[in-house]
Amino acid sequence: MRKRGCSIEFLLLFFGIVAILFTVHWVWYMATASRTRGTVVDHVRERRSGNQTYSYPIVEFTVPGSGQVIRFKDKAGSSPARYQEGDVVQVLYNPANPQDAAILDWEQLLGRCICVPLLGLVFLVVGYRQLFSSPSKATS
After folding, report:
1. Which terminal Cβ of the chain has fewer Cβ within 10 Å, N or C?
2. Which residues of 33-44 are buried (b: 16+ CB within 10 A; e: fewer)?
3. Residues 6 or more apart from 62 whose CB is under 8 A from it?
4. Three-state helix/strand/coil letters over the chain
5. Which pLDDT belongs to residue 140?
6. Distance between CA atoms of 21 and 104, rounded to whole angstroms?
7. Backbone phi, psi, residue 28, to 5°
């Protein structure tokens, strides 16, 4: 007979819900953000997970209409660096707070809009099935 411990099932459901909420937030951000082009002007290198060093691009763009120059560090780092200084990139930014900006590229779209929600959906389905499935019958 199966013991009805629920900790794993609730963790799966929790992470599934978090993944779906993250995706909804990112899709909403993409739908409401303004787009422009920016230029990679520098990199910040940060050590993560042991000796692995990740490069985070520093991007500069001008807000259309206001002429305000914004410089931001992208949230996605990579090893090796994905962009070189001088590369022109597509930028998403919040018109009310242009400092809230991100590079828009296919790799991030793939991860944030396809992989994360699929993984979240798998977690939700597996967690739900485990939580609400009937206990296995013992065979003699």
Report:
1. C
2. beebebbbeebe
3. 36, 68, 69, 70
4. CCCCCCHHHHHHHHHHHHHHHHHHHHHHHHHHCEEEEEEEEEEEEEEECCCEEEEEEEEEEECCCCCCEEEEECCCCECCCCCCCCCEEEEEEECCEEEEEEECCHHHHHHHHHHHHHHHHHHHHHHHHHHHCCCCCCCC
5. 44
6. 20
7. -60, -45
Strand-pairing partners, residue 44, are: 56
Report the alpha-carbon distance of residue 131 to residue 59 in Å, rounded.
46
Structure confidence by residue, pLDDT tens digits, 76-134: 888 888 899 999 999 999 999 999 999 988 766 666 667 777 778 788 788 778 777 75
Q: Which residues contact 51 (CB under 8 A, 6 or more apart)?
A: none
Q: Cα–Cα distances in Å, from 135 out to 13, 14, 20, 53, 108?
A: 19, 22, 28, 47, 41
Q: Count CB neighbours of 91 within 10 A.
A: 23
The tens digit of pLDDT for each residue in 46-76 reads 887 677 888 999 999 999 988 999 999 998 8
Question: Both tokens of residue 22?
Answer: 């993250």
